[in-house]
Amino acid sequence: MTRFGDYKGKVLTVLTGTVASQAIPIVLMPALTRLFSPDDFGTLSLFLAAATIAAVPATAAYDIALFLPKEKEKSANLLTLSLCIAVCFSVLLFLATYIWGDEFTALIDAAELEPYLWALPIAALFIASFQTLSSWLITQQRFKGLALARIAQSAAISLLQIVIGLSVASATSLIAGQLIGQTIGIATVVYLALSRDWTLIRQVNFCAMRELGALYRRFPIYSLPANFINVLANQAPMFLMTAFFGPVVVGLYALTQRIVAAPISIVGNAFLEVFKQRASDEYKNHGHCRTAFRQTFRALAWLGLIPCLPLLLFAPPLIAWLFGEPWREAGVYAQLLAPMLYIRFIASPLAYVLYVAERQNYDLIWQVGLLVSTLLALVAGSYAGSPRLGIGLFSGAYFLMYVLYLWLSFRVAQGRGAGREARS
């Protein structure tokens, strides 16, 4: 098999698992939208937004560095370091929510979250651990195992939410199904990630973890703030919409994220997970990753048209037909977000070249610009009293910033000389 053929095979394996894991909740979503109200989905979305934000600093971004060492022993030490930091962070987060939980919900004007603050550290730990162990599976090229873990978690969450919702349809039921499903996902990925590598994991030691932590210190210094700002920019609309427009609008927006934005992003992440390895290898051996960048760009550009073009044309009637007339406005939101989703689908995986080339400072500056521009867009929409205007401006700001991101990634992928040119 040729190198490109092997690359396509890996992408196809990850993509198959990703599509399957996203197809399950989409197929079951009509049942969920008839069991639960937009208010319920709004509360679940706020909870997941807070957990997703909290999960970013949980590993200090060392999980991103798993792909860089050539020796498996070093990657194993980074894996253990990431998981240990995640556990410690979650304990601290639990204490913080216990002491300052009321102040936190008052600050973000989200009283709906107050009954569920105790579960935030658990959800954040599950998210961070699942991502870290998934990265380990990728470094070991166990793409089938990664696909299986994702399918198991996705199916468990959706089915449990329906089963619990048949008894009591409330936000609590949605969050309970989410947590129990994540537990099943974590158990699956732990078994797949560690069952064949226990001998390697047992060789981990504190001194090696400390040395590698110091060696890859650029990741917590630059990548962690950049990732945090990126996730904050993605999740901030949930909190701002709650404050400006109420939980119903959040629930409608959340549906577009759950059935439209999330599947598109996760399919892009399937490319990212294979691109990480190939771009890293190509850059180590040749000082650039032009071939990997070019081939991945072409595939993403064509594939992204499949979901985004129909969204732009037919989203409102399609969503109303699938999920019920009360959800039609979510289709309007999907139309407004379609251009942003398309460019993000292309640019996000390819931006990993900034990590490969250790240009995390570029990424940090860009992420700050993204956060500021998107927040300003939403605030402008709130002053006009229009959720549609706010989401439209948000999408436009995102689109322009991701065009810049794509250009910067292209320059860095050309090699060390081109990276210096981009810096100058």
Structure overview:
- The chain has 424 residues and is mainly α.
- The chain has helices spanning 3-35, 38-55, 72-107, 120-139, 143-167, 171-194, 198-201, 206-215, 218-245, 247-286, 290-323, 328-350, 353-356, 360-383, 387-413, 416-423.
- Helix 1 (3-35) runs antiparallel to helix 10, helix 2 packs across helix 4 and helix 4 (120-139) packs parallel to helix 6.
- It is globular, with a radius of gyration of 21 Å.
- The model is unreliable at 418-424 (pLDDT under 50).
List the defining traits of the structure above:
0% strand, mainly alpha, 84% helix, disordered C terminus, 424 residues
Short description:
This protein is mainly α and 424 residues long.
Structural class: mainly alpha
Detail the poorly predicted runs: 418-424
Helices, by number, come to 16
Strand content: under 5%
Shape: globular
Largest sheet: none
User: Order of helices and strands, N to C?
Assistant: HHHHHHHHHHHHHHHH
From the alpha carbons, calculate the radius of gyration and give it in angstroms: 21 Å
Q: How many beta-strand segments?
A: 0
Distance between the termini: 41 Å
Question: What is the helix content?
Answer: over 70%
Mean pLDDT, rounded to whole units? 84
